[in-house]
């Protein structure tokens, strides 16, 4: 295993907590809406399925995958309400580790800038831990996610993966 261990990250309105299995209890209702899956595929998980998924995520990938998973739930400070999650998949690259990032905010909590605030904090934390090559894979019709990526300074490239557009910092070359 290589790479940083997820730490608590604080922003003005949010706290990003490293994912733990017990988060499934409060995240299941936040994520229980098929509209969240319009552009990312899949469907809402039951509580038991989400718990199993979190167990898997917390355990991390098998070493041969050459990947490192960092996951946080996003909590609103004002009332401690869990509102979504962010994640980074770290992989080795020639110039140092790179991270593919993603964000999900529950339907009732969208439109308040939470994804942007959480994603900025995530990107800052990654940069502070030596991971400067940040990418995102975004469905071409997912305008809200594109807006978040733009605010991180990412730009859409001509590359695609599984029908999603790869976003990178301007001028960044694809990883070898
Ligand atoms: C993408 C997502 C995380 C954005 O969450 P959010 O907290 O509402 O995002 P923010 O409030 O930080 O900002 C999103 C921006 O996109 C804009 N936006 C939101 N919905 C939009 C839509 N349907 N079409 C165009 N722009 C939209 C917002 O207006 C905002 O821009 P503005 O501040 O200039 O108005 C959320 O929509 C989501 O969870 N979607 C489902 C999961 C998903 O697709 N995740 C992305 C995986 S790459």
Automatic annotation (TrEMBL):
SUPFAM superfamilies: Acyl-CoA N-acyltransferases (Nat)
Region listing for Disordered, in residue ranges: 156-176
Positions of the N-acetyltransferase domain: 14-172
Coiled-coil regions listed: none
Lineage: superkingdom: Bacteria
Signal peptide as annotated in the record: none
Name the UniProt record assigns to this protein: GNAT family N-acetyltransferase
Organism: Actinomadura napierensis
